[in-house]
Please model this.
Amino acid sequence: MSSGDAVGGRNRLSRRGGRGCCFRGHGPIASLCSRLEAAVSLVGAPLPPGGVSRTPPRVSAAVQPAYNGRLPTEDATQVDDRTKRRLGITAVVVGSAIFMAGVFVAHFTGLGETDDLGREIYPAIPRGWQWVLLGQLTALAGSQIVLAGIVVGWLWERPMTWARATIGAIVFTTEMIVLFGIVPNEWLGLTQGTFEWTSQRVALTIPPWLVLNNEVEISYGAIKDAVSGGYSATMLGAVIVGMYKYQEWQKKGGAAARPQPVSTYGRPIVKGGQ
Model:
């Protein structure tokens, strides 16, 4: 047998168990055949008895990701933000209506019963400091609902930006003005004007045997100032403790960033415009 016949014999096509074909020996054809068998083994589809199949392997329908035009994780995030915004808008509208109603009640019930010419005005509207106080408390409640609606609708659990930081600063400043400015001022106006709690009016006298037989009197003016000062000190302490607790809550992960939603393909979902 010549060397040519030996080489030809080594390159003769042989079949191995019906699973593929290759050329024994060396050369470009044998290399191509071995690469083809390796690719088929990676896909997992066996070769037909006739050799290499031209039909592409099928992918099971169970592993194909379902897509119906929108991703479920994205819907959940959008509904959550949309619900907060609706709650915020509702609170702002309702709080504004309550605030305006309280302002009207406090204004018209605080008017005199007659004008400068002695004519009776608004006879159907009741008068008295009780109605004025009721209107003021109603307006206070409405203002708190408005501020809470702004926080829930546009600030709570949202990424901080310059715009949201500005809104938060305005809300906090407004709340501090209400707590430390308007409320104490209305208290002093009620006690000094309506109740006439002045330093000339004695509220109570301490028994002499408690103060070494001295005469000690406490005026209504002192009680008025004590209540005002105690309220301001208490609210200041509450604000300091509340801010400290809020920061500690953030450090413990209470206000951690919301996990970014991931699509079915394992990639993060990015909203339009980002």
About this structure: Residues 1-20, 61-77 have pLDDT under 50 and may be disordered.
